[in-house]
Every structure is written in C-alpha cells, then in structure tokens.
Write a structure and sequence with these properties.
Helix content: 25-40%
CATH class of the domain at 47-79 and 95-228 and 258-297: Alpha Beta
Strand order of the largest sheet: 5-6-4-3-9-10-11
Number of helices: 9
CATH architecture of the domain at 47-79 and 95-228 and 258-297: 2-Layer Sandwich
Structural class: alpha+beta
Radius of gyration: 21 Å
Number of strands: 11
Distance between the termini: 43 Å
Strand content: 15-25%
C-alpha cells in the first residue's frame, strides 16, 4: 500500500495530461524532497556538521550527520536528509520548534499589538533589549528538544517600564532562544560544535533577530541571497538527476551569501540571558492539570 522508496534526485516520471500544464507535457519529475530536506539541499549543506535553520511559522533545524544515522539522546529526531541517485543516503538530526514567526501573528491577530508584519523589525529594533520581559510561546506545549505537552505560554518579567516594543522584541528573541536549545541538543548528540548556522525563511529577513541569534550562539549566522531555499533545493535535486549539473560541488558555487552576522556579545552576558530564558521556561511547565482542563471545558 505504501509508495516505492526513491532517491531525492532521480527521474521518477514525467508530467502527463495535467489540465492547464500542457506546455510542461513530458517534463521529467526528478526532485523529490520534503520541505526542510529541500531547504537543506537548497542551502548546499552537503557536509557532515553543516546546519540550516528555517524561521517560518515554526522553527526547523536540520544538521547533516553524514552517511550514518545518529540517534538522538537529547530530544531531536533522526531523519534521512537526502539521497542522490544510487549513492548512499545522507542522514540528519532534526529539531522542530512549534511556535516561531506565528508568535508575531498572535501579537497581531489576537492582541492587536501590530497592524501588519512590516512593523515587527522597526518596533523590535527601537529598544536595546526586552526590558526584562520573556515570552515562552508554549501554546500547545513545547516541542523539541523538551517535549513537554503540558506546558503553556507565559510572559514573565513584566514591569511598568515594559512597552509594546519590548513585547515585540521578546517575541523575536523567543525564536532565537528556542533555536539555541535545538542546536545545543544537536551538538550534544554529535559531539561537534557547529561552525556556522545557515538561515532562511521569512523570519531570517530580520537583521535584528539574526544578530541576536549570532550573539546567543557565539557562531556566525549566514543568510543566503535567495531565501526561497525549499524551491531551490528541489530544483537542484532535479537538475542533478537530469544532467544540468554533475556534482554537488557545482551547487555550492551557486548558493551565494547574502549577509553574515558575527557574534559580538560577551560570554557572561550570553550566559545570563540563557539562564533567564530557562527560568522563564520553568514557569511554563506542568500547567495543564485537572483544574485547567475543567476550566477549559466549562
């Protein structure tokens, strides 16, 4: 009942008889990748230790682990990254964060703090920090690497000093802290520290957030010129299968760096912020119990 397993880069058929796509009749179908695997391919993350993180409505980390699967002991998932033709498959560790960019959507749609998404960068950059506020967006529990389904969202550290801008910045920083968590888990599983993080997705357009990401990781964060890495990865896989390119080395030359952020925060400041984030997360845990279920049902 299940479909035949095929490679990510292999001619598996052709466009036939699709209404409205007559001009594509006979064009081969040759790139078969899931969303995050395609983005990894589009970032040319072909070597063990290469990592990319997609900042979308959620957050999605993929770390290439090479030809042998690494089974996580720290809350990540083991996945096939890709397979090219008859070559051996390449494996990866994957960490999925449930709420990233959708936290800003919540501030806009549920709380009315934003008119539209174009305001996010300006507001978040208008203040140097969050004024001590932290948001843990555990709207439906926490995903990787904590896997705490009974957690719920909290905003902590509020004072009368905190403004709308601080809350918007705290939402941006929440995505960063959650990314740090999945990367720390990947480094613990592989025993290797990442040398840089490649980023994509709509959230990576925020210069403020990418600088904070570099600061909190202590490594370079690199954004490509082309943020549509999922589509690019599928095209790369199809092109390899049909002879447009002969080797992944050619693809690496096509992925151009758009901007690079270098960590500039001191280690003591970084550690303090991470301690506060973990304290905030602790406040979100074990919230769902008989009382909350009864209140929700009433």
């Amino acid at each position: 009942m299940l479909p035949t397993i095929v490679s990510s880069s292999q001619v598996i058929g052709a466009v036939r008889g699709v209404p409205g796509l007559e001009s594509l009749e006979g064009v081969p179908i040759a790139g078969v990748l899931g969303d995050q695997q395609a983005a990894t391919f589009g970032q040319a993350a072909f070597n063990p230790g290469d990592a990319k993180h997609t900042f979308g409505t959620g957050g999605f980390l993929i770390v290439n682990t090479g030809g042998e699967p690494v089974y996580s002991k720290n809350g990540l998932l083991t996945t096939v990254a890709y397979r090219i033709g008859d070559e051996a498959p390449v494996y990866a560790l994957e960490g999925s964060v449930a709420v990233a960019g959708s936290l800003h959507h919540w501030l806009r749609d549920n709380l009315g703090l934003l008119r539209d998404s174009t305001e996010i960068e300006g507001l978040a950059s208008s203040v140097p920090d969050t004024g001590g506020a932290f948001i843990v967006p555990a709207f439906s529990g926490l995903f990787a690497p904590r896997w705490q389904p009974d957690a719920r969202g909290v905003i902590v550290g509020l004072t009368r000093f905190v403004t709308k801008a601080h809350i918007v910045r705290a939402a941006s920083e929440a995505s960063v802290y959650q990314t740090v968590e999945v990367i720390d888990a990947a480094e613990a599983d592989t025993g290797t520290k990442l040398h840089e993080l490649r980023v994509d997705g709509g959230g990576s357009a925020s210069d403020m957030m990418m600088q904070f990401q570099a600061d909190m990781l202590g490594i370079d964060v690199v954004r490509p010129e082309n943020l549509e890495t999922t589509a690019l990865g599928a095209a790369f896989a199809a092109g390899l299968a049909t002879g447009v390119w002969q080797h992944t080395d050619e693809l690496k030359q096509l992925v151009r760096e758009g901007r690079r952020w270098v960590a500039r925060m001191g280690g003591e400041d970084r550690a303090r912020r991470l301690r506060l984030w973990n304290r905030a997360v602790e406040r979100s845990l074990s919230w769902v119990d008989e009382d909350t279920r009864a209140l929700a049902a009433s």
